[in-house]
Amino acid sequence: MASVVQEIGKLNFEGNIIPSSWFDHIKLESGKADMVAIVLLSEIVFFYRPVEERDETTGKSTFRKKFAADKWQISYQALADKFGLTKRQVADALKRLRDAGLITIELRTVETKAGVKLPNITYVEPVPDAIKAITFPKHGAYHPTLERNISYVQTEDILRSNVRYPTLERKTSYVQTEDITEISTEISTETSTENINNTCASNDARTCNPKEEPRNPFKNLTQQKRFDSFWAAYPKKRSKGQAERAWMKICPDEALFKEIMSGLEKAKISHDWVKDGGQFIPYPATWLNAKGWEDEHVPAAKDEHRKRTNRRDMPFEEYMADVCGEGWEDSVKLPWLKPKSGGDTT
User: Fold this and answer.
1) Which domain holds residue 288?
2) What is the DSSP string of 257-316?
3) Domain end among 208, 236, 269
4) pTM of the model
5) Which DSSP string do the residues of 184-233 spell out, in sequence order?
6) How many domains does the chain have?
7) Which of 248, 296, 333, 341 is the 20 to 30 A CA-CA neighbour of 75?
């Protein structure tokens, strides 16, 4: 046996498994394999594969499930982030799997221990007979069809002539949800609420509040909020779209975000940014692409800060100091002011 084969044989692989037969059964209308649906189905099946636990004393094995609730709860956004997809791609692919009878999708309204109701929480479950049929096609006569094992109640009989081998059709570019019947069930059991609470603790707000989604081009709310803080602090607000894309190229973690904001504060009081009324402040995208937060800056002189301020926005005394210079109180006679030297203002 070849040495490479022996070395690979020693590896104990874990995680998702994609049977080769799935590429023959899970296809788009064009006849090409539906790669997005195949990858998502392998993820769903993985979470429904039990975990084996062996007793070292007796040698007996027991099995447990990977999730706490009665079904696996997952958000479209979490799947999109994991596999580098968009939320729309995930929603369309899961709908195609559901229509082919390979999975069921259930939307629940779940109440946490704190009494907060979370609507439209997605629960997904594979259909074992259908999975078996496409995985071992030679050993079973069952073929999944669109009328079986779907998450809503079929109201019309489907003629046998309409039954065909499952081909996952590509849907429109938007998410169609009108044919998914929402099941509004309040889950008050300890296991279900514990599962939701754990999910909220381990993921960001988008998982627990499906309605709150980041805007393009941000992949999550954390990066969106970090950029918004940066944008609010940046003195020259130009070409925001380019700045957002530049930000996502960096995709800073918490430590780098603090470094960027610290560098920005130093730049804002530097000579280069203060001189000529801030004329030479770079656009935000340019500054981010150049890693401007790593630059060394020369602090601006005190009078430069005053010059960059619009005189119309200055307090009266600062305005007078800017126009007349320091010590203006002694040279300008105003009836309501006493000069610092103590002289007469009359």
Assistant:
1) 221-308
2) HHHHHHHHHHHHTBHHHHHHHHTTPPPHHHHHHTTGGG---PBPPHHHHHHTS-GGGS-H
3) 208
4) 0.42
5) -----SHHHHHHHHHHHHHS-HHHH-TT--PPTT-SSHHHHHHHHHHHHH
6) 2
7) 248
